[in-house]
Every structure is written in structure tokens, then in C-alpha cells.
Amino acid sequence: MTLKECKKEEKADREFQKKFKFEGSISVLTRMMVDPAATEKRGGGKNLPLRRGEILDVIQFTNREQILCRNSQRRYGYVPRAVMLHL
Predict the structure, then answer these.
(1) pLDDT in tens, 14-64
(2) If we measure between CA atoms, which residue out of 48, 27, 29 comes closest to residue 87?
(3) Which range marks the domain in which residue 53 is found?
(4) Which SS3 state, helix, strand or coil, does residue 83 take?
(5) CB within 8 A of 50, min separation 6: which ones?
(6) Is 55 within 8 Å of 72 (Cβ atoms)?
(7) From 68's CA, which of 6, 15, 27, 87 has a CA 20 to 30 Å away?
(8) Residue 38 burial by Cβ neighbours in a 10 Å radius (0-12, 13-18, 19+)
(9) Domains in the chain: how many in total?
């Protein structure tokens, strides 16, 4: 990883912590997959865009309806629990 990529990731992490009021270090709790039968959704606001079969890093289990996740492009957002499957 180059220095430029490292700084870009650090900036994205700081923006995530500010936007979601997340304190502490960002650590992946587990990885989950979006249900292949689920409908694809465009992201918006604080929601993460969903693609069928996509593997997401779980950052925080926020409540019974939503999970805070990160996708492969290092974008953060909420995902409905109903469309997530354990690996």
C-alpha cells in the first residue's frame, strides 16, 4: 500500500467517525453476506448501497433492524439486518 492510499484510507475513516459519531478504533466484528435473493438498493444518506451476494465487514450491531457495515470500496453505512446472512 502506498503512502497516498494509506492517507486516503485514514481520511475516509475520520469522515466515517464524524458522520456516524463513532468513537474509538474501527474494528471488524465479523463478515456477512448480502442475501442473493434480496433486491438491490441504491444507497443514500447513511445507508450503504446493496448488491446481491456482496461480502460486507460488520463494524457495529446498532439495533435490531440495522447493522453498521463497510463494503469493499471502504464506504460505510447502515444495512438492514433482514438482508444479511452469516458466512
Answers:
(1) 898 999 998 888 899 999 999 998 888 888 889 999 999 999 999 999 899
(2) 29
(3) 3-86
(4) helix
(5) 34, 38, 39, 40, 41, 43, 79, 83
(6) yes
(7) 6
(8) middle
(9) 1
